[in-house]
Amino acid sequence: MNYSASKLAEYLDGKLEGDPKIEVTNIAKIQEANDDSVTFLSNNKYTQYVHNTKASILVVNSDFYTDNAIRPAIIRVENAYIGFVKMLHLFNKTKKVQAGISKLSSISETSNISNGVYVGSFSTISANTTLHDNVKIHENVFIGENVIIGSNTEIFSGVKILNDCVIGNNCIINSNSIIGSDGFGFAPDKTGTYIKIPQIGNVIIKDNVSVGALTTIDRATLGSTIIHEGVKLDNQVQIAHNVIVGSNTVIAAQSGIAGSSTIGMNCQLGGQSGVSGHLNIGDNVKIMGKSAVTNNIKSNTTVKGSPAFNSSDFNRSYVHFKNLNKK
User: Fold this and answer.
1) 252: which residues sit within 8 A by CB, 6+ positions away?
2) What is the pLDDT of residue 230?
3) pTM of the model
């Protein structure tokens, strides 16, 4: 589909400088764009391409300045990267799944299926499960008993959502993730033999949560493992039993949160980071990649290292670490 410069400026709530009738059909990187492309500049590292890009439209921050004239029409916005994200949504050509139930799916007669629901082939919807409006269940998905899935949530192929779990509205759960798997609970008896501790709780995922592929969220021993509103989990993340993750926290790939720990709101956990069990991580905490957190962390703190401690202290200490073997 074609979009004119004037339409894009209106869509992005931006200020247009240039021909409003210029049309584009795609979005591209600034160094790879062509005459049919709109591109963007949000990182100064790519400023070098501004004067030779072939793009017809360039989205920039409102304070962008250049000494020389440039070829593309300019759309000035408050945040060019957010503008780029909005344009990705606009140009997204992913095929929209239609409503309907595949004849090759298995749907319990006691389930409650609302309007606009799609269930793909070889997916199973178990007893007493509720799918609200416009839920999309792709192929080879298993939904256990007594599950509730909120409106406009999309579940991709291979996902398992086990008994009693609750998924909110507008969530995305990517392929082969498991929600409500058995928590890792064992207690040694006097002989040292480990006895299984039944995990009889559930998982509650609130609205607008995104769960990456191959991510596991364990059910609680008692009560609920809770993922609050707006949380974004990358691929291959492990969330253990009775963990609580605060709203708008993001956790990068291959990270793990051990049982009964609480992660605050608006936190950022880098890739391959780990949090030990029964800890309390405050709000607005940043945990750098590959860090191992073994103690509680106060709000508004950045930590790194293994074991993790204050990032500024780590950087000062590293000056000495790297010189230990020097004479």
Assistant:
1) 234, 237, 269, 270, 271, 272, 273, 289
2) 97
3) 0.84
